[in-house]
Amino acid sequence: MPTALVTDSTAYLPPGSLHGLPVHVVPLHVVIGGREHEEGVDIGPARVADALHAFTPVSTSRPAPGAFLEAYESAARDGADAVVSVHLSGELSSTVAGAELAAEQAPVPVTVVDSRALGMVMGHAVLAGARAAREGASAATVERLVRETCAGSSVVFYVDTLEYLRRGGRIGRAGALVGSALAIKPILGLRDGQIVPLERVRTASRAIARLEELSLTAAERALGAHPAGADLAVHHLDAQARAEQLADRLAERAGRLLGDRAAVGVEVVELGAVVGAHVGPGTLAVAVVPRVGG
């Protein structure tokens, strides 16, 4: 395969999804009570949720540039003559900067892509690029697929409290809501890689209902631009039952609303330790990702 992909652990790719694909995953770090862990290696979302419930200090950090360099070198040893490296929004993390530093020393050309997103927006973009790479696509084609997939995608999410985003400094323009946080259940989104407020709702049940409506609207919009189909990922932290109920409703309503216009897939993917540490238990998010043509 002439082109390989590198991504980071916040893509939250489901187990088994990378089988046979030229993808290397570099873990971000989570620190709980002063002890450092690698996401997806020796820590998962349940441990982070428990720590947050117990008010144990939790922080996160990017991988060292050397970890990216090792991934690029590994891809070269496996036969790749180019790498497309896709990462968490640079507005939320310095992960992209670490990848760019490592790219300067890589043994093959590396194109670093700021996804301006997280979770399965990144995940589906990486999978689309990797499938093309498996068929022999050039690095330029893989990069285009990744960028177009990310650009056409959206993320809408609900958090039980803004406190975790505030503590971690990732709150962005949603910081304007903090003063009234006790009186509202905020619905947030990602725009240009930053967290932005979308709506203020008074109860959790209404917030989840609006999350559903906004996700369906986003799916319709994505399909209007990319009739080949769309994938929806319902992310959560410590809210499995709610996530499954939301996914079932989205699948049913998308089928009714969109009919034969396109295939729509819906899956439940738990948020990992890094993003979970910043949004907190009870979070629900929906990523809407179009299937971009090759």
From TrEMBL:
<dbReference type="InterPro" id="IPR050270">
    <property type="entry name" value="DegV_domain_contain"/>
</dbReference>
<keyword id="KW-0446">Lipid-binding</keyword>
<dbReference type="Pfam" id="PF02645">
    <property type="entry name" value="DegV"/>
</dbReference>
<dbReference type="InterPro" id="IPR043168">
    <property type="entry name" value="DegV_C"/>
</dbReference>
<dbReference type="InterPro" id="IPR003797">
    <property type="entry name" value="DegV"/>
</dbReference>
<protein>
    <submittedName>
        <fullName>DegV family protein</fullName>
    </submittedName>
</protein>
<dbReference type="GO" id="GO:0008289">
    <property type="term" value="F:lipid binding"/>
</dbReference>
